[in-house]
Amino acid sequence: MQAMNRAIAAAERYTSNLAPLAEKTTGLATYLYLPTLGALAVVTYAFVLETGVSTSSTMHMQMLVVLGMIMALALALALWRAKDDVLYYAVVGFNRVVVNLYFRKLDTAGNVDAIPSQGPVLLIGNHQNQFMDGLLLTALAPRKVRLLTAAKSLHRPIVGSFAKGLGCIPVTRPKDVAFVGSGSLRLDTNAGEVIGSAGASFSSELAPGSSIATKAFTATVVEVLADDRAKVSRVAFKGSAESDENVKSLAPAADTPAAYKVIPKLDHSQMFSEVFEQLASGECVGLFPEGGSHDNTHLLPLKAGVALMALGALEKFPDLAITIVPVGFHYYAGSKFRSKAVVNYGDPLVISGAEWRSEFASAKRETVGKLLGMVEDALRSVTLNVPDEDFLDFVLVTKRLYTPPNVVLTPSQNLELTRRFAVGLQREDLLHDEAILDVRRRVAAYADLCRRHGYSPMSATSVATRSLYGLRAIPYLVVVATASLLALVPGIVLNMPVGLLARSLAHAHAAKAKAESSVKLHGRDVIASYKLIVGVVAMPIWFITVLLGLLVFSPLTWTQVVILAFLMPLYSWVGVMFTEQTFLWSKSVYPLLLRILPSYRAEEAVLARMRNELAGHIRQLIEDYDKGGFAENERIVPLKVLQGADDYDGWIEETN
Ligand SMILES: O=P(O)(O)OC[C@H](O)CO
């Protein structure tokens, strides 16, 4: 026993020596070093046996068993010591599989090496696809990321377990703990008090530091005087209070009794100190500075937390140099299974030095504002920011028309070109420019006609002519579609119930999320996450049900059912692949079929002409507006390529 204890202690010492190395490499590989050595020892020993050293075979067996036990012990100790990493990489490994299953195409773009392999990092992203954003952020990062997550998410059944496995740092958000106060209240501006109606219960619901919000104003409670009276400070009237006059005009609305929300005073000190500690020990912390997930087509105002984290850590640990890396998540119909996404990394921002520290010490609010502005610029450089979906349509279709049909842009080029269009078309001088407004009307008409003909105006690179020649593809496509439909049957049986369940539950959940949120427009940002959650839970349950059904009701034997159990994920995956291909084929067949109708054929000629004229017009317009603005090497699509020069043909392959 004593010998065993010594062995354990020795193994512990050995693995603890490995720990710093493992932390540096952040991989599990290092922790498996010892067992690998053990395995090598066993192999060597077996080899020695084979080469015939003479000892009794029982002794060989005993030695092998002892070696095996040492290896198992070493592995168990190594895994135990590294249990957080083990759990983290197990969850991240799962996330990697999940995101690659969910997205048909997942690309990275921009400064893909922006995340340094060592040292403190704040990884910040836009937040338009709820848990999918965190999944992607951790799955694609080349190092461990401690993600900040809404505390309420950590209490959710499945999500919470995953978040805990990732070692997420919980943040209690005001909106998650706000509640509707009893009765109603009004503001007595002169006394600096709020007066409650009958039924108000200030003594139990309010406390110094909690905030009150009505439709007309917000205020912070200083002291609760009675169940219907409380002293308040920091009163801010809602509406655009740009002048003192304006503020006065808003005040009377606050004097009328109204329903109110209470936001209890929150203490974030523990969360901040955890973040500071993480940064001080050179870790990477991930967060979404908009504070919550939403489905707007632009960034929401950033919360100050991100700046407070960087500056607070610098204040506490003066030698730190914190790298802030902006990450832009771009989803193309991201709520749909097998859609496309691009993760765009921006240039890092390094915050260090005495200058920031002294600025922060002398003017906290201004310095936080300054850094927050820089963080916002960084995030804007990797995201698209347009007022609404209509404008996004305008940007995407215009960019598609501008790009020559045969040019294939890399994901980075494509995103950057789209971003420049989004910024350019919102330029103050162009927003109301008659020529641009005219283009917008023409682009909208072109997009409508495209959709009528079954083309996606964002991706169609050309429109077929009125010839019926293209129809010869139809018999081939029908044969392929029929064959794939037959092949689909097992996959459909397996996938469809879960797919339909996930879809309907996710849409119901989106309606609920929208109703509960003040920032979600349709709740679309929660759909992908919910589909994943339902899929992860329902798929294994469904598989087991089918297998049990086969065992009980079919003539299959146990062995056959066990073999089927192993084949099921494969069937399911083949089903997904075939469904996807059939769907994509049917999308390309649809315009061909429409072409059989003479009226559509005639209109198609109009559409093709419209496309050519509009594309030429847009290119010319961009040239006119940007005259002298672009050096040839700053252009994403070289001018000669835009003009269709033959000697630039090679460029198209180069960028593929
Ligand atoms: O409550 P939501 O929709 O903002 O989403 C939860 C967080 O963003 C992720 O923790």
UniProtKB/TrEMBL annotation:
<feature type="transmembrane region" description="Helical">
    <location>
        <begin position="60"/>
        <end position="79"/>
    </location>
</feature>
<dbReference type="Pfam" id="PF01553">
    <property type="entry name" value="Acyltransferase"/>
</dbReference>
<keyword id="KW-0472">Membrane</keyword>
<feature type="transmembrane region" description="Helical">
    <location>
        <begin position="532"/>
        <end position="552"/>
    </location>
</feature>
<dbReference type="InterPro" id="IPR052744">
    <property type="entry name" value="GPAT/DAPAT"/>
</dbReference>
<keyword id="KW-0012">Acyltransferase</keyword>
<dbReference type="GO" id="GO:0016287">
    <property type="term" value="F:glycerone-phosphate O-acyltransferase activity"/>
</dbReference>
<protein>
    <submittedName>
        <fullName>Glycerol-3-phosphate acyltransferase</fullName>
    </submittedName>
</protein>
<feature type="transmembrane region" description="Helical">
    <location>
        <begin position="473"/>
        <end position="494"/>
    </location>
</feature>
<feature type="transmembrane region" description="Helical">
    <location>
        <begin position="28"/>
        <end position="48"/>
    </location>
</feature>
<dbReference type="GO" id="GO:0008654">
    <property type="term" value="P:phospholipid biosynthetic process"/>
</dbReference>
<keyword id="KW-0812">Transmembrane</keyword>
<feature type="transmembrane region" description="Helical">
    <location>
        <begin position="558"/>
        <end position="578"/>
    </location>
</feature>
<keyword id="KW-1133">Transmembrane helix</keyword>
<feature type="domain" description="Phospholipid/glycerol acyltransferase">
    <location>
        <begin position="121"/>
        <end position="332"/>
    </location>
</feature>
<dbReference type="InterPro" id="IPR002123">
    <property type="entry name" value="Plipid/glycerol_acylTrfase"/>
</dbReference>
<dbReference type="GO" id="GO:0004366">
    <property type="term" value="F:glycerol-3-phosphate O-acyltransferase activity"/>
</dbReference>
<keyword id="KW-0808">Transferase</keyword>
